[in-house]
Amino acid sequence: MARTIKNKELTRTRLAANYGGWMYCTECNENIGYLCYATYDKLILHYECNCGNHGSALIDFEDSKDGHNTDNELITIKNRLCCPEDSSPLITILDKKLKNYELEITCKDCSKTYKKEK
User: Fold this and answer.
1) I need a labelling partner for 110 at 20 to 30 A (CA). Which of 22, 37, 52, 91 fits?
2) What pLDDT does 66 receive?
3) Which 8-state DSSP code applies to residue 20?
């Protein structure tokens, strides 16, 4: 079922699809990660690509619930950052393509907001 986007702000970043799929730096056109379509409620990402570009993404939906901050860390399964509650894949960040990043993502199922940075 398609979701209705409430906020979508992409800065020097593009997505392969409306609110998920492959993510690209618009300056060098490098693939920087993959955003899973159905498992997240809100994404906030700020990054510096290896090309020097500073990009960001903010996406949430009309039916998004307020996330609850947690100190738990995302788990990695087959290069995907996943919710530790139910192992649902949320996002893949290609670390080797980015100098640094700050990620905040809310799981749709458990409504917990996870933070990660490099």
Assistant:
1) 22
2) 86
3) S
